[in-house]
Every structure is written in C-alpha cells, then in structure tokens.
C-alpha cells in the first residue's frame, strides 16, 4: 500500500487553525503522523515528496456538484467529474440527485456508489432527493436512503415550494437526524427571470430574478426549522439580505448552516457582459454589494462552506440566446484558484478559506475528512498558492467546458492530490496516476 | 457635405444604440435626411448596394419593420430576400445558430435580424462574416426605431436638445423604450417614463430618466408624447388588471394630451391598440406624427444600410 512522506511543507490544518512548517506521513490510505516543525528523517521504504515552498492541506470537500451519471453521461460521468475534482484538489464531492433517474431510491444510491467505487478517483457521496422524482410532493425514504449511503437530502436545483411538504420533511428528518440541504429559489418569484433583477438586467433587456425569490424561501424555511428543530443547511445563498437572515437565525441558536457558491464569491452580475451564457447561473450572479456581503459573511463564519456548484452543460444547452440557455457552470477544477482570490485580496486567511473548503463541510456532513491529524484519511492537496496562470477551458478535465473563468487570470495551482493515500493528480508529471 | 467627405461610420454592425456616439447618431440622422429626399423623388433608386445581398431574417413576425427594411434595401439597389422563421420550430436556439451558419454560407452582405430573445442578435453577429443590423431583440434594443423617432422629432422640432420627451406604456418589455432612452439622452433630451410600476424595469431611475406613475403629472410640459404598445397577453391581470382600467389611467386621449405643451407631438411605433393605449381621436389628430414615423422609417433604414456599406466585405 501507499507509503509517503510529504516533507518540508507549509502545513495548514483548517480544523485546528494551525499553520506551520512540517511533514506528513501517509500510510495505508490514512495519515499516519503529522510532524510539525523541522524535517523528519525519512522512514525506510517511504517515497519522499519534497514540498518546499508549497502548502499541504486536507483535500477539499465539495458539498454541491452535479454530474450527468446516470442519464446525461455526455455532459459528465462520475469518472470525468472525479478527474476534474482531483485536478482541482477536491478529494470528496457530494453529487446532486438531479440525474435521470433521480437519486430518490436506495437502489440508485447504491448504483452511484458502485460506479464511483469502480470509476472515480476521489470520494463520491450522493445526496438524495427530498421528494420523489424531485417533484416536490412526496417524501423519499430518508432512513433507507441514508443507510444506503446518502449523506444529505436536497432536491438539487429545485426548491420544495409546498410549505406543508417541507414542514413534514423537516419533522421526519429530525427523527432520523438527517441533513436537509435545499436550494432556495421560489419559482413563482423567479418567473421568466434569467439574471439578477436590477439595472444590469434592465439594460440588457433580460427579465430579472429578485433577491426575494431566495429570501422568501429562506425565511419560510427558518420558521419551519424553528417549529421542527431539524438540522438545516441552506445549499447556497447569494445576497446580502440572506446573509442577514442566516446571521439572525444563528444568533437565535437554530441548527442552521449555509453555503455559498464560488461563483457568487468571485463574480458579479456585470461579468455577464455581452450575454455570456456561461455566467447564467442559479442562484444568479448578484450585485457587487451582495458579493461583498457574502465575502464578509464567509469571513465571519455566517457562511460555513464554499461549494463549486459544479454543473456541466454542453454546447447544445449553452450556445443559445441568454434567456434560452441552461443554468450552471463547471467549477471543480477552478474552485480553489478562484477562492484563492479572496486570500490574495486580503479578505480571508488561507487557513480560514481552507476551513470553509474542507474542515467545515466535512464536519457538517459527518465525514472524517478535512483534518491534518493522525488517523484522518489521507485526502490531501499540495498547492502553490501563488502561481499565476490564465485559464484555458480546453485544458479542463471535465467533459463540459462551460467555465465562467475561461480566459480569467487566476493565481494558485494544485500540484498534487492524494485521495485515500493514492496519488490521483500530479501536476509535476502532468497527468493522472490511475 | 458630399458623401465622400463624410467621415465613415465606425461600426461594422448596428446592434444597438448603446455604443454609438452622439456624433455617430447625428451622422446617421443627416444621412437619413438625404434618404428622405431620395424617397420622395419619382426615381427612388440608388446604386450604393448594387450587387449586394441583404437578408431579412425575422424570427418574430413583423409586417411593417420587415417591409420597411425591404424597401430601404431595394431603393439602394440591393437584392433583398425575406426569411421568416417560425418561432414554433422545434428548438429555437438551434434554429438561430444553424440558420445563421446556413445563411452565412450563402455569402450575404447584410443580415437584418429580429429575434424574440435579448442578445440573440449579438450571438448571431459573432457567428457570421457579414454585417448585422438589429431589427429588435427581445426587450433589449430596436435601434432603427429609435433613430426614426429621433429623425421625426428633429425634422418637426428642429432639435432634440432640451426637449421633454415622455415615453408612456409598457416600458418593462419595450426594446423601443430602451433604445429611445439611450438615444434621446445622448442628444440632450430630458426623458420621462410613465407607467404603472408593474410595467417599469427595476433600476429605471439609474437610466437617468424621471419615472412617473401618474400620467397627468408625467405629461405636464412635455414636448413629445411617445406611446408604446401594450401586448394583449399582459393586459388581463398579469401586469395590469384590464384594458379598461389601463386606458383610464395610462391611455392617451385628448383630455390627457391637453396637459402636455400645446404644440406637443404624439408618436407611436405601431401597430397601435386603439382604445387601449391611445384613442383614435389622438392617433388620427393634428398632433399625431404616426404616419410620418413610417415614412422616416424607410429613410433611416436606408441611411443605416448606406453607413454600413463601407464595411461590407470586398474580397
């Protein structure tokens, strides 16, 4: 089995906040030891990897990634998503149930887990649907789905619009201790909307999506969490008003956590420019004031996690007039470099950023990952946080190339990724070790 | 000024008023004045576009805009082909790109495009090698309509600078309103918009216009009253409760028109809903410029085609 010493790195353990020099010993898929301080003499038989000048941290845990398997394998398979993840330093991804068939039955959870075991380079955990067929009407089998391996429950890009259904789902979820992780967009308030409502949409002649499409759902759900006492994770929030709502709910002691998409942290509605459909997203890119509020909320912990919101779309769904194009952007490979912008801009420490990208999501999902400590799985990312480059979407490993960061200047690159003690990406060898 | 001494129009496409300088706009209006003269002669034909192919590609039916572009092209000597693509085609977007590629292979020189989706014309402009004129894209822009409105106003009032122009009606869904707001402000007019708030775009105050929800206040002191069409599907409870209520508060009749300046002029891009946004009495009255707008439409489209002529491919 694997036996590595990653020597002389800047180690960051986001779970404890410790950021110091040291080495990590990886053996049999796990972290055998972490030696803070001076370089160790290499144990006999170990492969030594010199990490001078690089950061070694737990691999990222992405709570929201869409794949096309089963049903839309031409856009993304679990294998291609996992290759993209490995190249982006993501060692655990939670795949969304918006597949065909939807992940609303234990047999589909089992299928996804077996396919992932056979084909994927990184850890894949399915999120199951809250309602059968993602239709928003009847609850799925929370208990059996969790037993099959579902780590959370969400209707993917859809919201549970019926308040009674949501109330019952929360009530029932509490009994099983499972996590509901809904998307927040009231389809009636979205209406024909295709981007954030406001001046930019009005100038482009595009119908707007008001922030209230998100906040009305969020307020409702928080009332229902108060009523039921269930654990609740708002999948992605995108605006200043939502931040204020979550902040208040947390202050009231409710069992609420929330995420933000990297897109809402790194981009705003002006980036849509000349009708760029790769920036047509759900939730939509918002005003710069909203982006700033979301960054601040991430810095102060109101927002717990950052997700890639990876959503592969192809030419047929994106090379269309803006209003007719599908929502979504790929993000697994650019999650880390795009998020590092916040560190380079002085908004967050690297340790805090990595906490929101690994330790905190692992904690919310109840996974052992996200720690640099003996006994933790050897899911690791070695990165150069400063290396600048310009992204060319053709270099992406994802089957779909709909990146909003195409041609963007990014700073920070993954050098090496280990999942379960196995090298799944090695930039120094320019490729993947399968 | 002779045609050769005139500075060239610096754009290869006309996708919107946004991006045109006041100088570009004035130059197009000057060229349009000349085109009006040509159109009023018995011999209406020029040779500017002789041998050139113009395709009118309309994804949304429009009798008047399409025929206006057709006449403009023919008066300049172009071979004009009309192509209407039914919006009920299997997949609209595919039709757009596929149609663009197919047409492009036939080597047209100019394509005039109307599409129901904002930005569709920009998408198409990136895929073809010829000049593109936007004849209306969703709720985004309709630049030749704004130019013909400006020409009509300038010929009747002698200027645009300093005029108070009230645009009234469904601003939210109107590409005509957007193009007019940009153009009229670029030339120094004071623009007001009048509508119930359900028909005003979010952030309209950021456009530099004054917004009114009370038509009487909005019309006070106006030099130009520009009415917009209210589409039928928006009249029955979705944006306004009924045509009856809409006409009562936002329809232009003689009584409301009397609140504007005594020499105020009335415009409408057509086709009109008589009795919904405008009374017949006003539409056919002495202050109405509606028929003149149609004449100016041909002249402006000739001017636009002439301006783009210097950019047409010559290889």
Provide a compact summary of the structure:
Chain A is of the alpha/beta class and 434 residues long. Chain A is built from 13 helices and 17 strands. In chain B, the strands form two sheets. In chain B, strands 7-6-5-8-9 form a five-stranded parallel sheet. A four-stranded parallel sheet of chain B has the order 2-1-3-4.
Q: What is the gyration radius of chain A calculated from CA atoms?
A: 21 Å
Structural class determined from secondary elements of chain A? alpha/beta
SS summary, helix count of chain B = 11
Distance between the termini of chain B: 29 Å
Low-confidence segments of chain A: none
Shape descriptor of chain B reads: globular
DSSP summary: helix tally of chain A: 13
Report on the biggest sheet of chain A.
8 strands, mixed
Average pLDDT over all residues of chain A: 96
Q: What integer is the average pLDDT of chain B? A: 92
Largest sheet of chain B: 5 strands, parallel
Distance between the termini of chain A: 14 Å
Annotated CATH architecture of chain A: Alpha-Beta Barrel
Which topology of chain A does CATH recognise?
TIM Barrel
| Beta strand % of chain B | 5-15%
* Share of β-strand residues of chain A: 15-25%
Main interface: chain pair and counts? A-B, 23 and 26 residues
The CATH class of chain A turns out to be: Alpha Beta
């Amino acid at each position: 089995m694997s036996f590595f010493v990653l020597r002389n790195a800047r180690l960051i353990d986001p779970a404890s906040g410790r950021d110091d020099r040291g080495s990590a010993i990886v053996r049999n898929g796990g972290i055998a030891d972490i030696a803070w301080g001076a370089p160790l003499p290499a144990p006999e038989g170990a492969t030594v990897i010199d990490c001078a000048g690089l950061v070694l941290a737990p691999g990222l845990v992405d709570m929201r990634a869409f794949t096309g398997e089963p049903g839309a394998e031409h856009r993304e398979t679990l294998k291609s998503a996992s290759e993209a993840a490995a190249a982006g330093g993501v060692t655990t991804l939670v795949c969304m149930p918006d597949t065909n068939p939807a992940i609303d039955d234990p047999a589909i959870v089992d299928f996804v887990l077996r396919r992932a075991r056979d084909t994927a380079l990184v850890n894949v955990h399915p999120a199951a649907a809250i309602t059968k067929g993602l239709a928003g009407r009847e609850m799925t089998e929370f208990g059996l789905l969790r037993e099959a391996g579902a780590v959370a429950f969400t209707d993917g890009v859809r919201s549970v619009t019926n308040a009674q259904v949501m109330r019952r789902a929360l009530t029932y979820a509490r009994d099983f201790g499972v996590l509901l992780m809904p998307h927040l967009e009231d389809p009636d308030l979205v209406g024909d909307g295709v981007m954030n409502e406001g001046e930019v949409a009005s100038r482009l002649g595009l119908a707007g999506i008001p922030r209230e499409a998100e906040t009305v759902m969020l307020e409702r759900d928080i009332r229902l969490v108060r009523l039921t006492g269930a654990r609740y994770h708002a999948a992605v929030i995108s605006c200043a008003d939502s931040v204020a709502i979550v902040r208040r709910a947390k202050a009231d002691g409710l069992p609420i956590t929330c995420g933000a998409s990297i897109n809402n942290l790194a981009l705003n509605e002006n980036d849509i420019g000349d009708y760029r459909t790769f920036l047509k997203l759900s939730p939509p890119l918002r005003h710069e004031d909203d982006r700033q509020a979301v960054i601040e909320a991430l810095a102060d912990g109101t927002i717990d996690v950052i997700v890639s919101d990876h959503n592969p779309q192809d030419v047929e769904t994106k090379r269309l007039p803006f209003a007719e194009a599908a929502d979504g952007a790929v993000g697994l490979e650019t999650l880390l470099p795009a998020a590092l912008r916040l560190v380079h801009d002085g908004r967050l420490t690297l340790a805090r950023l990595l906490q929101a990208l690994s330790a905190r999501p692992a904690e919310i999902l109840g996974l052992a990952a996200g720690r640099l400590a003996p006994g933790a799985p050897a899911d690791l990312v070695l990165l150069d946080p400063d290396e600048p480059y310009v992204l060319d979407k053709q270099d992406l490993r994802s089957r779909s190339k709909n990146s909003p960061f195409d041609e963007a200047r990014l700073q920070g690159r993954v050098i090496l990724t280990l999942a379960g003690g196995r090298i799944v990406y090695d930039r120094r060898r320019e490729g993947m070790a399968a | 000024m002779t045609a050769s001494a005139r500075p060239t129009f610096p754009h290869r496409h006309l996708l919107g008023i946004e991006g045109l300088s006041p100088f570009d706009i004035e130059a197009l209006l000057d060229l349009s004045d000349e085109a009006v003269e040509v159109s009023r002669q018995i011999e209406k034909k020029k040779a500017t576009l002789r041998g050139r192919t113009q395709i009118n590609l309309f994804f949304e039916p429009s009798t008047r805009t399409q025929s206006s572009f057709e006449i403009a092209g023919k008066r300049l000597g172009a071979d004009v082909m009309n192509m209407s693509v039914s919006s009920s085609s299997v997949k609209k977007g595919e039709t757009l790109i596929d149609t663009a590629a197919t047409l492009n292979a036939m080597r047209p020189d100019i394509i005039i495009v109307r599409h129901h989706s904002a930005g569709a014309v920009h998408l198409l402009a990136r895929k073809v090698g010829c000049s593109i004129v936007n004849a209306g894209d969703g709720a985004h822009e309709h630049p030749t309509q704004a130019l013909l409105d400006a020409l009509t106003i300038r010929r009747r009032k002698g200027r645009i600078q300093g005029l108070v122009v009230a645009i009234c009606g469904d601003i939210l869904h109107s590409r005509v309103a957007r193009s007019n707001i940009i153009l009229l402000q670029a030339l120094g007019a004071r623009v007001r918009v009048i509508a119930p708030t359900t028909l005003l775009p979010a952030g309209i105050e950021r456009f530099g216009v004054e917004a009114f929800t009370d038509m009487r206040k909005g019309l006070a002191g106006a030099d130009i009253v520009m009415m917009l069409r209210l589409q039928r599907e928006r009249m029955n409870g979705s944006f306004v409760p009924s045509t009856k209520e809409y006409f009562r508060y936002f329809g232009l009749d003689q009584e409301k028109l009397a609140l504007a300046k005594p020499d105020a002029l009335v415009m409408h891009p057509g086709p009109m809903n008589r009795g919904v946004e405008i009374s017949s009495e006003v539409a056919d009255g002495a202050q109405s410029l509606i028929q003149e707008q149609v004449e100016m439409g041909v002249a402006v489209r000739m001017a636009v085609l002439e301006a783009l002529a210097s950019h047409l491919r010559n290889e």
